Amino acid sequence: MATPKVAEPLATPDGRYLIVRGRLWRKSNPALSPDERRTLVDELMAARRAVRTARQSGEDAALRQARERVQTAKVGLGERGPVWWSDGAPDENRRMVVNSSYAPWFVILADE
What we know:
Strands 1-2-3 form a three-stranded antiparallel sheet, with no helix packed on it. The protein has three helices and three strands. It has 112 residues and is mainly α.
């Protein structure tokens, strides 16, 4: 039996964000080397597993520490923290696309 293909989320024309359920999510820094990216993604996945384990155990200190690991990995990937582009454009991470500078482009797409 064939595995169904999952559609890739829509990306903004400048490649900075993915759009998931109408919300902008900052993409990883494309300037990261494949090795850097793999290391950070591995750490992010391990940290997310640690969050799940800490939630299940009810250990508040472990949960805080695991969430800090997630934050550190996401900053390293460029998904949070300082923006990775240099043209002065503001960070619109987590905004609804219709309330962002991408709204005109997004509306045109919706009309097609």
